[in-house]
Batch of 2 targets.
Target 1
Amino acid sequence: MNRRRFLTITAAAWAAPASAGVTTWQSTALGGTLLLDLRGPRALSADLATGIAATIEEVEAAASLFRPESALSQLNATGRLDDPPRALRDLLALADDMHRLTGGLFDPTVQPLWQALAMGRDPASARAAIGWDRVQWQGALRLDTGQALTLNGLAQGYAADRVAALLRQAGYGPALIDMGEFAVLGGPFRLGVEDPEGGLMATRTLTGGAMATSSPGAMRLGMSGHILGPQGQPPRWSTVSVEAPWAGLADGLSTAFCLMEADAIGAVAARAGATRVMAVDAGGDFSTLFVS
């Protein structure tokens, strides 16, 4: 199973008696399988399972490209959306932050290029449609001719942050939220950094914050990896892993950092508030590029 294809939430160190309730729940989430494991007093666990299911459904309904009825799919199909839901507004604001922080390397308008490469079509017209600056994302949403958006580089991290907030408000912890991007409440939790070619490259122990890992070669689009530079920039790294205070930030940065040189990564990481950046280069060598 792909690391982006499941969610596990484990309140492993919950100091509850043996009779405490255990709620498990499995469904689909953001194109993959969602597995929920909550431990604590039964009533609290049941309430949390309901709240988490509703939160995941809210993000899916807003931003899933797998659902033709989602708000994002409707925007892509028609080029406009007059009353976008809260989760889509949140994700677009986060996308704008990532675009500015990374000097435009994080660009949600690469979706037509992604589709063209995936289907073996001529990518010329798709490349011409790329440009976040041509998207009207505040108020009513409007796309320029030929444009479409993907928020797949943010949605998992955003959803993990929303779930973490629910757990925190309900008094849970330590807890690990794993949607392919990790959010941590308490701990310690030991997490791995994996590369598609090299396998497990490092382990990290987190007691808070978040970690996200991106690998361009984890999915192929013809001869290209699935992380695309808006101006045709090739990936600089086989894998990049980012630790940050929250998962949405780590998710977006790990995506864009795959396209950036080491010096630029360090500068952006410092401005963004990331705490650590680790990477595997094309030759399979692992290194730590930034520590705050």
Target 2
Amino acid sequence: MRSYILAGFAALSLMVGATAARAERLTEKPLVDTSWLADHLENPSLVVVDIRAPGKSGNPYTAGHIPGAVAAPYGKFGWRAKVGDVVGMLPPVDVISERVGSLGIDNDKQVVIVPAGVNSSDFAAATRVYWTFKVLGHDAVTILDGGQRAWVAANGDTSTDIVAPQKVAFTAHYRPELVASAKDVAAAKSNGVALIDARPEAQFEGISKSPVVARFGAIPGAVNISQSKFYDDKQGKFVASDVIEQLAGKAGVSENSKEITYCNTGHWASVAWFGLSEVAGNKNTRMYDGSMADWAADPSRDMVKTR
């Protein structure tokens, strides 16, 4: 009898081990290079998500993509939604979870996000999608540093085959600690939380503004670290953690301080959030999803101009 029990435990251990192997993250890094991706491309646990959007020159996915990659273009797939009167918000959790599952991504899959990689604003599409996965509780996500641009420069294989993923179930485990509300932002100063405005300097100073933002200026007490400083457009790669620490220090933000990043619609803010939280490792960082589109819409909320 004892031998049967032991055999049962052994079989159970093998089953648990197999499950753990399937669920194991292939990397703990927020960014991977082209060599890593090439080495893991055939792994059945991997899903490469091409978020490049069609433009005037056509559809970049159909023109050539990383073999096996699924298409989920940033502006058209539904990564963001209008919630109330505010554009660019995180969709309802059940809605975005179903969309993630439609890409063949379940909770055991390792996701690699691939943007075009041409500049910092383009790379923000990847950091925003990455943030979305993190908010949904999916840690097995990373970004190809430099995106498709880096893959082509490394002479990586490309394919024109259209990948039709099989829909699977994806279960979200929502993380509210990564999302800041207008109430959180209003209380930031009294709670010792640094507000980091990731917009261009001219918008921060109140000289110019985005069309989706009702008023000129910034949130009182915020400091400016433009999203463009987090990504090296010439090299086509994200800056290193020591550079990010220097940027934060120069802006007067203490190491490991509580932080909230914002921009106009939570696009550029995701670059700053990604740099501070994921690359530099400050897990006290949240992002204000509604950003200035939400904040400035309420005339009772204070705004300041520095110029």
